[in-house]
Amino acid sequence: MLQIQDLLGADPGRQAKASGCKVEFLGKRYELKPETLPDHLKNSLRRSQVNTYYIVFKFKVTSDTGHTHQVIIRTYPRADLSGPVQVYCDCQDFKFRCAYQMNSSGALFRSSGTDVKLGEAIMTPPKKKGSIVLCKHALAALQELNLNKSIYLG
Ligand SMILES: [Zn+2]
User: Fold this and answer.
1) CA of 33 to the centre of ligand 1 (A)
2) Tens-digit pLDDT profile for the chain (154 aa)?
3) Cα–Cα separations (whole angstroms), residue 84 to 39, 87, 109, 127, 142
4) What is the Cβ-side half-sphere exposure of residue 18, based on CA atoms within 13 angstroms?
5) Ligand 1 centroid distance, CA of 62 (Å)
6) Domain ranges of the chain
7) How far is the CA of 47 from the centre of ligand 1 (A)?
8) Residue 68 C-alpha to ligand 1 middle, in angstroms?
């Protein structure tokens, strides 16, 4: 499980690139998602699933090159933004360099729509191995959310 703080600190080389991005808040919504319980809890709670609340943020991020992309961030609606985080960006960099690794870490935001857009990239390891964890758009959106969390969660 990755948290927002893990992603923010994961790639110091990208932070300068992210700072050149303009981040616009598009909206948020709440989501109730059934989660499958681990086996030992299934037995003691006598159920296999519980419902968990999430908050889903949408941001529009314009990079210094003028390209605009949409970033989706899902996490627990907690004041300190702790808890598992899932991220998606609709840029090519995210698709081919981040999606596979993010999915393996359980940190890829997935929906039927984003699954179609990412296609095989979700299950195909990138040819070029590197330390890139996030594209600059997603990083910029995470930085903005973290910096102004009291406003976005309020
Ligand atoms: Zn991106």
Assistant:
1) 25
2) 899 999 998 777 778 888 899 999 999 999 998 888 888 889 888 889 889 999 999 999 999 999 999 999 999 999 999 999 999 999 999 999 999 999 999 999 999 999 999 999 999 988 776 655 789 999 999 999 999 999 999 8
3) 20, 10, 11, 27, 13
4) 22
5) 10
6) 4-148
7) 39
8) 9
